Amino acid sequence: MRRGRSTRVFVVVFFTVVLTVWALLLYKVVTDAPKEAEGCMDVAPDCKQFVIKGRCRESSVRDKCRQSCGRCGQSNIREVHGETKTAPPSIGATRARDLPELFIGDVDLKLHKDTSSSEALDFLLETHAGLWKKASVSSLCSSPVHSAGGGDIVRKIQHMQPPLDSPKVLCMVYTMEKNHVTKVKAQTATWASGCDGFVAMSTVHDPSVPAIQVVHEGPEAWENMWQKVRSIWAWANSTQIENYDYFLIGGDDMYVFTPNYKAYLSTLDRKKPHYIGRRLYDPNGKVFFNAGGAGYTLSREALKVLANNLDNPKCEPHGKMFWEDVQVAKCLRFFDIVPVDTRDNRKAERFHPVGPDHLVHVAKDNWVATYSTQFIHGIDGISNESISFHYLSPDSMRAVHVTLKQCTT
Question: What is the pTM of this model?
């Protein structure tokens, strides 16, 4: 009898202890969790300096700081900077908690310069005359650009005239600070002003470029490009979605012939979800995708779909990989958005993943030919309505620009 009563007391005490411990653990989880607004750890005193510098995950100060870095709303980040602006729309059906916010400053996305005037082209020739061995415009139009065949390709491109009501385009290039005065400077001196908005998505904020600092999960490294591009697309969706019809992203070694680009976009229904660029086929992943460095474009509706699913497990939100272009294609494919066939009526390509001086000599076993569908070798495979080239040095970019402006019809 006494033993049974002792057993019951032991059971009661045991479960009381267990429930108390469980309640304490639950209270700690709830109180330690980063909040969306009040008490958000991103703006706690121990975290502010690391949030501002985008280095929360590198800090040794308090695990809570590292855990919450970038998980609070944009309004909280603006509190850190002493601003009181309204927060942009949340990303996704629920907040994209695993996607760090971007630390941005005010930048003017419109380049207030004309790089097509005769004065601007003369300036390029005068300041970079060594590119063409002190060539004049007349000799430039009859000689190759940098290597045999390159000039012939550039000079065959026709100058398309976009309609007055052509869609508005935001052009974004991913880069880093050291390339601001070389590659990005060449872009802003040549084709970038043809976009309705232009911004370099970089490692620092610099309104003079204009450049925005991108904060993302993991290191700033080529092997982690998917995370950087995720943040870029999130920023475009949350801050610019209503300002433009199309959104172009590409590398800082990309050249875009904007008259032909906007003329082509004008042939599409801007209200539909378009995914536009140089269509390639990945035999390993068995997926069509648009080459990243040569630039690919999302219409507003396609961007909304992508941004709303950046945290979808199907889209590998924490993946560390350089093939961001393939990842975008995989994600969009889940929602029946696939690359547009951007070839012209002769099946020649408009977007080119290499420079003009390499296109004519693409070997049959080259990756460009291997990954292309119905690849046409030689100059016949290059559209007279070509739009973009990739892997251009700053000098090559200027050479292509002057040739296009002075030597094409």
Answer: 0.70
